[in-house]
Amino acid sequence: VQLQASGGGLVQAGGSLRLSCAASGSIFSIISMGWYRQAPGKQRELVAHIPSGGSTIYRDSVKDRFSISRDNAKNTVYLQMNSLKPEDTGVYYCKLDALVQRDGRRWPLSYWGQGTQVTVSS
What we know:
With 122 residues, this protein is mostly beta strands. The protein has strands at 2-6, 9-12, 17-24, 27-38, 45-51, 57-58, 66-71, 76-81, 90-102, 105-112, 116-121. It is built from no helices and eleven strands. The strands form two sheets. Strands 2, 4, 5, 6, 9, 10 and 11 form a seven-stranded mixed beta sheet that branches. Strands 1-3-8-7 form a four-stranded antiparallel beta sheet, with no helix packed on it. The model has no long low-confidence stretch (mean pLDDT 96).
């Protein structure tokens, strides 16, 4: 299973970016997908999470500014980020929790994307 993230970049405060993360490989079913971020010197933190058949979750600081969505046909998760602030700067990682077909069995496994840099200038 591989995750390919894209969409990061440099933007001024108040601007917008849209991140994408496409999953490929022996995925039987997706349990959930999410976005995390890590700022320099800080721990990785959850930004938004979208489970299959459940409610989305956002960290408080991004509510009303960020929106997570999924295209199930493409196994792709998106993060629309509006009204960006300098404190949103960091490396953004997508995460996949899925049932993976392997050796004739299905395994619940987690995968991380390679990370995409988001820099918001003031």
